[in-house]
Amino acid sequence: MNNYLNSEEEKLDPLVSPLLAPNLAGLPAAFIITAEYDALRDEGEGYGERLREAGVTVAVKRYEGMIHEFIRWPFDESKRALGDATDALRAAFGL
Predict the structure, then answer these.
(1) Alpha-helical runs (H) found in 5-75
(2) Is residue 29's pLDDT more than 80?
(3) DSSP strand E in the chain: where?
(4) 38-54 burial, b if ≥16 CB within 10 A, otherwise e?
């Protein structure tokens, strides 16, 4: 975080971490991709749960055996995640 934030206080800003927003109601549907071996996995999945609690349509999918930024690499699971994200976008746009 020290590489992209200007102060310690910014760590608590919901614009930096939407998980910290007091109210998530009214947000659009979401498809959240997490990786089994990612330091941010729990935060991503927690955000999905908060969205669900706020009445937002959300799907959270964890890709087992994967690491942070796996989607950029030529793993089979990366291709699967890209396909799943494509399907979620098509559904969101009614295509």
Answers:
(1) 41-53
(2) yes
(3) 30-37, 58-67
(4) beebeebeebbebbeee
